[in-house]
């Protein structure tokens, strides 16, 4: 009764609370999901000049374009992001200028006589290098008749957008290149730079002629160097350098001995095995269908080639594994084989299974005698040999793709029909001739192997070492790197600066674990050490090959860094600069021979050198200051000593040619303008992106 009385007294308050609760549910439903009253609230992974990139659209495009791909997921996402950025920029600029692609133009770019480069690339016949019109026309028919699968339609829709983007970009590039102009003075200067030739006598005194102990470098020297070379470092977005301590996991002698014993024991079993194929498959070995000649064996050639049939050689080390090899058969190998084939390629309407079934039907018809090979090749063949009865002529070993090659050289009997599947599709094959001139024999081999890798005990022991080191040195990354230098078998390095979306870290390379390190680093502060040990695996054998400790060494904000932040990067250049000043001071006023004699340096000659020659012979290499100093000299003059990239130089102009005036300035202007226009296509998009306002939020999702 007391409870009911209390409720009655506060009924108004209870009604208000219930109403507020219901209102909360209503507001949540109204503002959540794709059907929000405020429009789509899809997460955006970035903006290009204010235009958002929808996460779901990005993921959907990735799943369509890269279905079944086994490549690096982060590399393909990076390439896809670049496409989204470029497409947005091209669309925006095209709209401003009224550029577009009409339906008729798009259709022509897909199926016309001069299709888009994208179509040319994706529908190229790999054997002829020409556009596969038959496949393209088949897809056109599917589009027209609305019989294309949903997956194929989605792919084609994205491809159409790629074609449109490429076409508008081409139009923009053409507009820029057509507007380029080469003035007469620039043409005349270029002619003078290329026509003036010099013969130079010079000496180079390397920087290491001065010991590091002889120079003193101050913080001001670093700051001045960075100030005078502002283009060396400039960050458009936040970046970080990572300190890495790497514990490599290597097999011990005991690990290696155990793996050798495993192969030795298997050899004993192999000798008793009733079926080589079953045994080799059981132990993940390989049996090659090909017969290899003695000279084709890269290792232990005599020992293997001279085995009796059924003989086994091993264990022996090849690469990073113990191996054993069994000689299965020996036969004389033709020097060349003549064959013919009928090829049916798989496509969107003809899956490989259907292509194989058609080849089987054709084979049956020819074997029954109801038709001929030539007639079937002309009717069904899908490569350039169809009109010549499928004839491929004579070919030597290895002249065809491996499945085809192995069939005609090692398996097929002349005059019989065979089917084989290759990367090009399904083939009906007949060997029509063999040439045997050398009587060289080959052997067919089977292999088993065991990778020499760390055992689980070795991995665990190394992990424990890394864990103890981390526990003792987890306060600061600089302290950890210094401690790592004192431990044998442990390496330490500082990665190049990485941005928030990076997936490649120093010597660790790319991949999921490298990406995890970067993601951690952008939530950490300077000097902080990661609490976890990162595990890396061998990319082919998938065993643990290193444990990595990481920390944030430097944080770069957008803009120019301080000298202290890039001190390690410019240290050698600054020290060499100080050394150059000392050398110049000591040889000031001296000629080439005297300067060389003072430091026991070599006097050398450069002949027929031009000002616009970017790379100089005699191991001088790329030395812009060398060109600048040398081409100010008159014949017979000697330069003052000057510092280049690789040392201090003194140069004498032994001979200087006198260039004649350009005979046809207009022709030269045209040539130079053409050269400049040819560079527009490669420089256009980087320049376009540089001017754009791009906000990249991918790191929040990937």
On the 0-100 scale, what is the average pLDDT?
Answer: 90
For the sheet with most strands, the description reads: 5 strands, antiparallel
Class of secondary structure makeup: alpha+beta
- In DSSP terms (H or I, runs of 4 or more residues), the helix count works out at 24
DSSP strand count: 22
Strand content: 15-25%
Specify the helix fraction band.
40-55%
- Globally, the shape reads globular
Low-confidence stretches: 25-40
What Rg, in angstroms, do the CA atoms define? 35 Å
N- to C-terminal distance: 60 Å
Structural features, described:
With 702 residues, this protein is an alpha+beta fold. α4 packs across α8, α9 crosses α23 and α10 crosses α20 (567-587).
């Amino acid at each position: 009764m007391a409870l009911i009385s209390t409720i009655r007294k506060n009924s108004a308050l209870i009604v208000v609370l219930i109403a507020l609760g219901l209102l909360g549910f209503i507001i949540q439903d109204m503002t959540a999901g794709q059907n929000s009253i405020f429009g789509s609230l899809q997460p955006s992974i970035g903006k290009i000049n204010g235009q958002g990139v929808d996460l779901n659209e990005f993921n959907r495009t990735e799943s369509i374009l890269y279905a079944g791909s086994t490549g690096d997921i982060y590399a393909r996402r990076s390439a896809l992001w670049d496409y989204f950025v470029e497409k947005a920029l091209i669309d925006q600029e095209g709209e401003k200028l009224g550029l577009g692609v009409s339906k008729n133009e798009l259709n022509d770019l897909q199926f016309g006589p001069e299709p888009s480069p994208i179509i040319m690339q994706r529908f190229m016949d790999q054997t002829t290098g020409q556009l596969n019109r038959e496949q393209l026309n088949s897809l056109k028919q599917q589009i027209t008749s609305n019989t294309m699968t949903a997956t194929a339609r989605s792919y084609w829709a994205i491809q159409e957008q790629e074609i449109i983007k490429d076409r508008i970009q081409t139009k923009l590039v053409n507009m820029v290149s057509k507007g380029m102009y080469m003035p007469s003075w620039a043409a005349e200067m270029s002619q003078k730079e290329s026509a003036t030739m010099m013969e130079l006598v010079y000496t180079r005194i390397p920087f290491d002629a001065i010991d590091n102990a002889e120079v003193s470098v101050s913080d001001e020297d670093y700051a001045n160097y960075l100030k005078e070379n502002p283009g060396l470092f400039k960050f458009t977005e936040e970046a970080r350098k990572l300190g890495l301590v790497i514990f490599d996991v290597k097999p011990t002698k005991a690990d290696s001995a155990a793996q050798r014993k495993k192969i030795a024991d298997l050899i004993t079993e192999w000798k008793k095995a009733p079926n080589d194929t079953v045994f080799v498959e059981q132990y993940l070995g390989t049996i090659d269908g090909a017969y290899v000649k003695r000279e084709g064996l890269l290792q232990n050639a005599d020992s293997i080639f001279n085995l009796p049939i059924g003989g086994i050689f091993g264990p022996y080390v090849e690469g990073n594994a113990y191996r054993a090899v069994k000689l299965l058969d020996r036969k004389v190998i033709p020097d060349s084989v003549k064959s013919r084939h009928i090829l049916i390629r798989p496509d969107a309407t003809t899956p490989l299974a259907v292509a194989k079934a058609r080849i089987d039907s054709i084979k049956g018809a020819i074997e029954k005698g109801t038709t001929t090979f030539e007639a079937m090749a002309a009717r069904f063949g899908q490569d350039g040999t169809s009109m010549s009865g499928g004839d491929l002529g004579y070919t030597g070993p290895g002249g065809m793709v491996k499945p085809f090659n192995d069939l005609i050289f090692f398996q097929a009997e002349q005059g019989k029909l065979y089917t084989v599947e290759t990367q090009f599709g399904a083939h009906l094959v007949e060997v029509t001739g063999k040439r045997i001139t050398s009587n060289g024999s080959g052997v067919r081999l089977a292999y088993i192997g065991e990778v020499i890798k760390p055992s689980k005990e070795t991995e665990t022991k190394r992990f424990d070492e890394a864990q103890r080191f981390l526990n003792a040195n987890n306060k600061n990354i600089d302290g950890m790197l210094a401690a790592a230098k004192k431990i044998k078998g442990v390496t330490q390095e500082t990665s190049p600066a990485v941005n928030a979306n990076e997936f490649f870290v120093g010597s660790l390379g790319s991949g999921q674990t490298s990406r995890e390190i970067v993601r951690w680093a952008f939530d950490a502060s300077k000097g902080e050490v990661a609490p976890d040990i990162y595990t890396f695996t061998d990319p082919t054998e998938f065993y643990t090959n290193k444990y990595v400790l990481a920390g944030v060494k430097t944080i770069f904000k957008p803009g120019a860094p301080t000298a202290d932040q890039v001190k390690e990067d410019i240290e050698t250049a600054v020290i060499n600069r100080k050394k150059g000043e000392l050398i110049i001071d000591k040889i000031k006023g001296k000629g080439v021979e005297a300067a060389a004699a003072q430091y026991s340096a070599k006097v050398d000659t450069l002949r027929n050198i031009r000002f616009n020659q970017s790379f100089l012979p005699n191991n001088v290499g790329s030395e812009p200051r060398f060109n600048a100093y040398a081409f100010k000299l008159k014949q017979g003059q000697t330069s003052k000593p000057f510092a280049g990239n690789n040392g201090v130089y003194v140069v004498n102009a032994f001979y200087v040619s006198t260039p004649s005036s350009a005979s046809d300035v207009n022709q030269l202007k045209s040539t130079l303008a053409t050269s400049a226009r040819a560079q527009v296509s490669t420089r256009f998009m980087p320049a376009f992106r540089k001017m754009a306002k791009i906000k990249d939020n991918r790191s929040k999702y990937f």
